Structure formats: structure tokens, C-alpha cells
Amino acid sequence: MADERTRHFRRLGRLRRSARRWSVLAGGLTGAAAVLTPYAGLGLPDAAWAGAAGSAVALAAWRWIDLRAFAARPVPPALDPAEAAARSRARLVAAVERLPVGPGVLAEARRFRSRFALRGTSAAESWARLDRAALTLAGIAPRLTGLAEPAVLEAAAADRSLRDLADRTAGVERALRLAPPEARPRLAEAHRALLDQLVTGVTAYEGLVAAAAGYVAEDAHPEVLADPSAARLMEATDLLHGVAAALAELRAVGEPQRTPTR
């Protein structure tokens, strides 16, 4: 969607073009009426020409009045470049999300941006472990229903919290590199505490994913939930073997018996 300033100039341009079109039309109809109207009086066709010319002149005048009134309004201020860029980004994201593969593309782009932002920091390894675990959980999440469904919600909340913690840990580490010597011990202690918390949280998240995978494996155990597709394929195979054997027997019965030659 265009901003207020752009919409203002677009409407101003439309009004200007409309006023010019009606002015040209009014001039043409007025000239035609002046030439085609006889001096000995007005007939019905002449009245039509004169009426059309007068209507066009009136509409042209109204268009010019509207144009002048709108042009007298104050022009909306221009958008800040950062705000304009944010709006353009939002429009691009909305357009991509409407595509069939849009959500997946955007998720991958966000993952790449986050991974690139943490590159070279001590939180990068924990973030990579968290990302692998989150992708694994996303693959089995549709099967986590019933009693296991609350675990999916807890995992989503933990994932957001741990990613935010990774960003904070990386931010403190970058600040530690630029801090003056007297402030470094305090920042280093804070960084160690954040990193320990991140590693502990990622380890717990991986444990949750392992438990979820175990739940799915037990829920789909062959003794509990047999796959019916294999059984159907075996039945179809036996049926085809039986049909082939029957056709072979029919062929054997239909063939004439040959008498041995002496």
C-alpha cells in the first residue's frame, strides 16, 4: 500500500488529467456547435450540439475547481527512509507468504539470518544444536497428539526463549570485545552465566525432542499399529499369482491333444 504522500500526488495527477480531458472535449463541442448551428435559428440537432457543449464546459469548470481545491491542500510529509524500507519489506514478506512455498522460504531465510548473526560467537554452536532439534521436532509434531500435545506447546515457548537467550549471549559477547578493561570482568561473568544457561536449556530441549521421538516410536510400534499397506500389497500379489495360474490352466485345457507320430 502506498503512503499518504504518494496517494496525494496520484490523486492530484488524476484530477489534472481529467480537467484537461474535459477542457479539450468542451472546446471541441463548443467549436462544432458554433460551426454547425445555422444563423437562421436552432433546430433539434443544433440544440443537442449546444447542450452537449454547455455540459462539457460546465464539467470542465468543475474539474478545474476540484483540482485547485485539492492542490491547495498541504502535501503530506515524506516518510522516513527507515520506515519506508520497513514498509517495503513488510509488503515483500506479505507477497511471498501468499505463495504456496512462501512460508517455508521465509522460515529458511529467517534461520539463515539468525545463524549468520551469531557467526563467530560462542552461542553459535548451541544455536545450531537448538535449530537441529527444532527441525526434528517439527517433523514429528503432527504425530504428538493427545497426552503429548501440551509438550509441543511447551517446546515452542522454550524454542523462542532459547533463541532470544542466544541473541542476548551473542550481544554481551560483542560488547565484551569493545568494553574498556575495567568493565570487562563484570561483562565476562554475565556472559558466562548466559552461556551456561543457554547450554543447559538447549540440552533440556534436546532431551524433550528425544522423549517425543520415543513417544512416536512407541505409539507406532508394529505390534500396536500394523501398517495395512504391506498386507494389501501381499494380498494383491497372491491374487495376481492365482489369476496367472488359472489362465495357464485354461490355456492348457483349450489346446488340442497331439497324438505321437510313429
TrEMBL record:
Q: What organism does the record attribute this protein to?
A: Micromonospora humidisoli
Please name the NCBIfam families in this protein's record. PspM_Rv2743c
Q: What is this protein called?
A: 5-bromo-4-chloroindolyl phosphate hydrolysis protein
Query: What keywords were assigned to this record?
Result: Membrane, Transmembrane, Transmembrane helix
From the record, give the transmembrane residue ranges.
21-41, 47-65
Q: Does the keyword Membrane feature in the UniProt annotation?
A: yes
Q: Which InterPro entries match?
A: Rv2743c-like
Keyword Membrane listed? The answer is yes
